Amino acid sequence: MRLVALSLEKLIAPTVVARQRPEKDPHGTPFADLPTRTAALRRIAAEVSERPDLDGLFRDVIDEALTLFGVDQAGLWTYHDGPVSLRLVAHRGLSQEILEIVARLPHDPRSAGMDALREREIRVVGGKLETTLPKVRAAYRRAGIRTVCFVPIVFRDAPLGLLVLYHRTEHDWTPEETEFARAFADHMATAIGNARLADTTRSMAGRLRAIAELAARLNRLQDVEGIGHAIVAEAGTLLDHDTIRVYRVDHETGMCEPIGFHGTFMDVDDPAPSMLRVAIGTGLTGWVAAHGETVRLGDAAADPRTLIVRSTDGPESMLIVPMTFDGTVQGVIVVSKYGLDRFDDDDETTLAIFAGYAAQALVNGSNIERLRHQRSELELQLEGQRRLLEVNERLLSTLEPAGVLELIADALLAIVPYDSLSIYRIDRAANTRRAVVARDRFAELILAHETALGTGLTGWVIDHGEAVLANRAHLDPRSIQVPGTPFEPEAMIIVPLFVEGVPIGTLNIGRMGDSEAAFSANEFELTQLFAAQASIALQNAEAHGAVRVRADLDALTGLRNHGSFQRELGEAVEAGALAGPFAILMLDLDGFKAFNDACGHPAGDAFLGAAAGAIRGATRQDDRVYRYGGDEFVVILPGADRSVAHDVAVRIRRAVADLSGATGGPGVTISAGAACYPDDGRTKNSLVDMADRALYLAKPEGRTTVGPISPSDPYLRALDETALAL
Known about the structure:
With 726 residues, the protein is an alpha+beta fold. It has 22 helices and 21 strands. Strands 8-7-6-11-10-9 form a six-stranded antiparallel sheet. The chain has a six-stranded antiparallel sheet with strand order 14-13-12-17-16-15, sandwiched between helices. Strands 2-1-5-4-3 form a five-stranded antiparallel sheet, with helices on both faces. The relative contact order is 0.05.
């Protein structure tokens, strides 16, 4: 800096010596002579190189200007990009009116001072001060100012400030004086420029140290949301702002997802993520996410890319920086501050450097979260398969189809949580499907609804034999609504159930909600594995049921056989009072042996089959008919008393009589004996014995053998009443 001072001294000295000027101005104010000016320049150069405090230097420079230039008043302003260009740093003798007018000058006024800054040339205004702004000119006149010299302070062709020298007299500024003023201003430019550079260097060095510390803290974080909050918290130590938003860019969904926020957005201090979320390519944030380029705006609303969500009271500066790693935008940092041009090059550089470290932390956090998620998914998968193995043993050991379906509903919930479950069975003959199990708040509506095959997501699964994962099932064009149920967001898994390779139904599970309700790929896979095991269990149960049915049926008549009767009568007796009263009818064909001998055994077998059909047709819907053996039959009548048993027996006798009349062979009739629980017995054997004795009395040979009924025998009286009635 001392070398600069010496070179300027050599430049100025010949110029000053070349012209003699009086020692006093027209008002008698003494001018500084050449040695004084030279010494002042040397002193200023030395102070510039040694003093870091610009404020004190500015005050000293103003004092020097009064002596060096013999002026009456002086003012020094620094220049800034922003709503107010000139900021006062020192003055001597200026009126408050002048200071306030200059402080309120617009960003780019057409004035002599601003022209001097734009043209990088000294401007002198005298006489009537015509080239100044009217309000400034009026203030000058009221202050008695007659001549004004505007000296621009320029460093490396960048305007840094404006030195203004005032005379209360008409003063003719000579070329030597203006050259000296220029040299003086160059020293000031060097002072301001170097001080600002040093300040910027110190500031940037401090910011870089802060960034290094922040980066170390960021890299210790292991979750994306925590990194977002840390970026928000730490960015305030790097640059001043009103709001900050941090986004993670999800290229799969095409969205910028907010992970950190501070400030106020649309008058809300804690806005919901949905308010801040933006698509890649939409608005300034989306543009930066798509292009990976920093955007700095002095007035964001004026940019055509801006997505206006709410008008503000004034201009708003914005700085949007991408967090880029390995050529991919991982996130975006958005800072804003009210006012024009509130961010500078240093702010942009600082945030860009910080964003680079933040991008690395974000990638690390995402990778760690992904590994955690994969580990969690693997643990869930292993746990699900372990549970599936446990459930599988119970499934395969359940031999009732209805029990298998209920076990499916109960066991799956422990493996894959759901809000609703439905199991559908297919009726190929009717071309429909119907829910046979429903775990849902609208279960009654679901169970009551019958749907044609080939419709809805379930129909698609049946037609294609493929499982479907529909995390937005309510929006799937294949979906249909169960009448009476509301339209609401729902995720669904629908898996076909097979028996012998043929779809016999579907397993449907659902969770209510938007993205938070989505089923994972692991849950989809577990549900398919479970459905496959359930299909095997269902197939086993139905096969077992078919075998058991065949074992329980009489091959000739298709009725339940004697073993089924004994088992089911025992179950009815065990149920006792809980099941309520019931009756049994013992039936025996009369004259069947003569028919069989006359018509042959094939005709006899055919007659037995026809008689079984006639008996079945004469009973009620819930009555159970059995072939007891030979030409004997038995019926269990749930909820029946003696009167009901009598009515059923009468219908059976008529049906068999009609059948016999149509065969053309010897006539065959049927006798019946009834017993009622609990009146006639409370055990299986006592009921059978009572019905047998009643049947015996009802037969022609039985009544002859028993003879007249004693009025004192209530047991035989009951048998007689039953027999006579039949």
